[in-house]
Amino acid sequence: MSEQKAQVKRISAAKTMKKIMAEHFHRVDEASRDPGKKVAWCTSVGPAELLQGFGFEVYYPENHAAMLGATRKATDYIPYANAAGYSPDICSYLTADVGAYLQGYTPLQDAYGIQSVPKPDVLVYNTNQCRDVQDWFMWYGRHWNVPCLGIETHRNVGPVSEAHVDSITRQLQHLAEQLEPIAGHKLDMDLFRQSVGLSRRCSELWEQVLLTGSARPSALTFFDGTIHMGPAVVLRGLPVAVEYYQQLLAELQQRVESGEGAIEGERHRLYWEGMPVWGRLRALGELFLSLRTCVVASTYCNSWIFNQLDPDDPFRSMARAYTELFIVRSDPVKEDYIADMCQRYQVDGIVYHDAKTCPNNTNSRYAMPQRLEQRTGKPYLILSGDLNDLRCWSDEQARTSIEAFVEQLEQG
Ligand code: SF4
Question: Which of 21, 106, 247, 320 has the fewest CB atoms within 10 Å, i.e. is most exposed?
Answer without folding.
Answer: 247
